[in-house]
Structure formats: structure tokens, C-alpha cells
Amino acid sequence: MPEMSGGGGVVQALIAHGITSVYCLPGIQNDHLFNALFDAGDAIEAIHTRHEQGAAYMALGAALATGKPQVYSVVPGPGLLNATAALATAQSCSAPVLALCGQIPSKLIGKGHGMLHEIPNQIGILRTLTKWTERIERPQDAPALVAQAFQQMGSGRSQPAGLEIAPDILQARADMDAVAPLAAIPQPLDEDAIERAAKRLEKAEHPLIFVGGGALDASAEVRALAGRLGAPVVAYRRGKGVMDDRHPLAQVVPGGHALWPSADVVLAVGTRLQWPSTTWGVDDKLTVIKIDADPAEMDKIRTPEIAVVGDAAAVLKRFNDHLRHLPEKRPDREAASRAVKEATARKLSVLEPQGAYCRALRDVLPDNGVLVEELTQVGYASRVLYEARHPRSFVTSGYQGTLGWGVATALGVKHALGDVPVVSINGDGGFMFTMPELATAVRHRISLVTVVFNDAAYGNVRRMQIDIHGNRVIASDLTNPDFVKLGESFGILSLRAHNPEGFRAALEQALAANEPALIEVPVGDMPFPWPHIDLPRVRGRK
């Protein structure tokens, strides 16, 4: 690499790592980064948003949809802080998102002079929300530090990384040494633990598999192991789609809860196993085997009897190697799982009209279409009612429960996946958090279909105030614009549907148009989904 600016070194390093888009909002401290983006031409594009949270959410959505690293850029201080909800969600969802954050002039960092956008210990904030963060202190260090950031995101448990760079370092020029992408830091497998786990699974009479976000890239290995063991596979949010929900061994949370009392061996793949371990109950008749890329997760909540640290696909491949002598299917166990699955579906049939809306979404979206859920009644119910058929086809904020993430995150999903249809479902409360990003959809021609279920309230909050807190309704009712007119004012296709049948027709029209679209669905109170999701203890002592 010839002499170039620090900004040029960053941009060229991003390109060398396969980055083709930076989700961003420009500002004075990052001017020389944007000069470098401009000079790079078609090799990398700047996707600019209307708010810093939109840029970070778009990067998050792209990372969750592809499993590959994505990048956003914001100015320091308020720019960084505006983006932190998205960064916290990336951390909780183990998403490889690189936060490129500006700084005040390098010689003034930490002085407290009140420079534009200065906040104390900005790098400390970044380090709290990332796996790895460093400051680029010399322009010639940029390529190597970018390479280290990508190496960290791609090693072990994938999580966000951060890089700080001051405006004078972005502007300064130096001779640069090109740095090739670095190999992932190796994570040796404990073959003894794998063999012990495989033997215990083979002897299990009632095995259960729970999958989380750490299993998304191990779908084939999970299916093979589940078939050999005849083990039902339970997913809630992040693990939906690891096992095609049409498979007789695929179970949603209520099905897993029904099977929990009789389980003798539970395999947790890339999941904290939080609810079963803390709420459903455990006893000395239950063996827990845990696979996780992060060794720190092994001693949280409940220490498993057998812990295997490593990439889920690699570990499960070794499990399958040890169990290769077993038949590929266990028809008797599949039949038993199917019966539980059918009984669960009957119990969940009371969740209407949420079920009808979820069926409409499933029927209209192709198998590879992506649903991005939000914190709304149809969104909550979709975790147990929507049929996910592929990994990464159901995008959720996981335990962070990030209200308002939906529109901007779904824009990132759609932008990253190109022609794959993507639908974002929102409540009217959450929708307004990133509603201005409809302008981003139009500006960058991102054909996202956004659905707003409108009950004129923070509906889940209001429902709990009525049902749980003695009708103390406060600060939960909302005043909304006419959402169809709002959408039309952005120049996007805007429709209104009053029932599931009308919603199905509107969704078909919106997806066929292949342009940004908004569908408003006025709704009233719906059956509360939580009694079917947040389930009681069924095992062990309190």
C-alpha cells in the first residue's frame, strides 16, 4: 500500500476484509474517513441513515442475516451514545459488528476541555459493549488494527469490536503496510469431553436438544444428531430455524416444557438454557451437556455435567462421528415428538388473531424469506406460532428485548440479502423509534415491507397494567399519525388491512411491488401470549 491517510488505511483494510458497505452518519470528526470512502469509488458504499441508531441497527441486521462482519461509523460523544442500544443488542446476540467511532483531536483526549462531542472515557464505554476495542493512535497502525478487530470478531464467540480514531489521525498520512486478513484464533476441542458426551447421549432414553443463536451455523449437524438420537429440538427466539419447524422433532417452548419433566439428558447448543435451568426446575436425574464457543458461559446459571467449548458445528460433527453407528432415524421417538407437537399446537390455537397473522406471513413469504420480529403482540406470539424453515430466517433481538429496533434492523437485513423478501413486524409504539429510516429505504432503494400493528398504545405495557397491576393504566396510551398518509408522504406504497385476510392480500401486493412498502393493521386487544411462553416449574424443588 502506498502513502495514504489514516482514513484511507482504514477503508482499504475494510475492503481487504470483504466489506462492501459502511452504514453511517457523517460528521466533522470523521470527514477524512468519508473522503477515503469517496475516493474508494465503487469498491465500498456509504449507506447513510437519519439517526446514528439507524446506522448501527442496519449493521446489526446485516450481521444477523448473514453471520458475517458488518461495519458502522458514527461521530464521537452523542453519535456513539445514540448507537449504543444497537451495540448492546449486537453484544447480546453475538453479532460481528465493528463500531468505527470518531474522537476529539488526539492530543486533547482525556483533558476535559469541553471539545465538540467530548465525553469522558469514551473508549471505556465501547469496551463495555464489545469483545475487543482499541484506539488507532498512528495512521500507519490502521490496517493492522482493523485486521485484529476482524480476527477477534471471527474467533471463538462472535461479538462486536470497536475502533476509535481521532480526526487528526484520520487526516495524517504515512506509508502503509498491507495486512492480509488474520486467521481465527484456534479453539482446540476437548476430545475426551466429546467422547463422554456422545456416550451419555447414546444411552439417553429421553434426550432433548435446546438450540440458541450459537447453533445457527450448525443446522445440518443438529438435524443429523437429532435424527440419530430421536431427540426433540427446542428453540425459542435466536435458535428458530436451526431445525425446520415442519420437522416432527422441532418443538417450540411449550413443547419443550411438556417434555422437560421426563428428560434424562439435555444437550444445550449455543444457548444459555436460562428458562429451563432457572424456572422449569432441575434435579439429580437430569444430565446437562453444554456446547458453547465462550468458556465464560459454562459456569453461568448452572454448571453442566459435561462442558464442551468450541464452535457448535465442529463439536457436533465429532458427536455425529462417535454416533455414526446409530440409525439415521428413530421412528418411535419421532412419533412421540410429533404427538407433543400436535398437542402444543392445539393449546396455542387460542392465540388468535395472532395465529392467523403468523400464518399469513408464512404463506406469503417464500421458504427463504426473513421475518424480523419486534416487541409487539404478534411479534411475541410469532416466537411460538411462526414457522421458521431456515436458520437466520427469523431475526430477533434475543434477551436484550430492544424495543424500536425493528425497522432499521430489517433495513440492514434486506440490504445485506438483496433479492430475498424481508418483512418487519412492529407495534405502533416501537415503529416510531426508527420510523425516519423509511427515508433511508427510499434513498437507498431498499425494498423492505414494514408492518405496523396499531393498537394506539404500548400494548404489552398497558395489558400488564390492567391485568397485573390493578388497572393502573399510566403512560402507555399513544397518539399516532395516520400511518398510511405518513408512508405516502415518504413516497412509499402504503396500505391498510383490517383483518388477517386483508393483511394477506396487502402483503402479497407489497412483496410483488418489490419496493419500500408500509402496511398498517389496526388491532384491538389480543389474547395474552405470556401464559403460553413464560411457563412454571415442573421439576425439582423450589
| Overall pLDDT metric | 97
Q: Which architecture of the largest domain would the CATH scheme give at its second level?
A: 3-Layer(aba) Sandwich
Number of strands: 20
Radius of gyration: 24 Å
Proportion of beta-strand residues: 15-25%
Compose a concise summary of this entry:
The protein has 542 residues and is an alpha/beta fold. It is built from 22 helices and 20 strands.
Keywords:
single chain; 542 residues; alpha/beta; Rossmann fold; six-stranded parallel beta sheet
Structure description:
The protein has 22 helices and 20 strands. It is an alpha/beta fold and 542 residues long. It folds into three domains: 3-175, 3-Layer(aba) Sandwich (Rossmann fold), CATH 3.40.50.970; 191-345, TPP-binding domain (Rossmann fold, 3-Layer(aba) Sandwich); 349-531, 3-Layer(aba) Sandwich (Rossmann fold). Helix 2 (31-39) links the parallel strand 2 and strand 3. Helix 3 (52-66) runs parallel beside helix 5 (84-92), helix 11 (253-259) packs across helix 14 (331-348) and helix 15 runs parallel beside helix 22 (500-513). The mean pLDDT is 97.
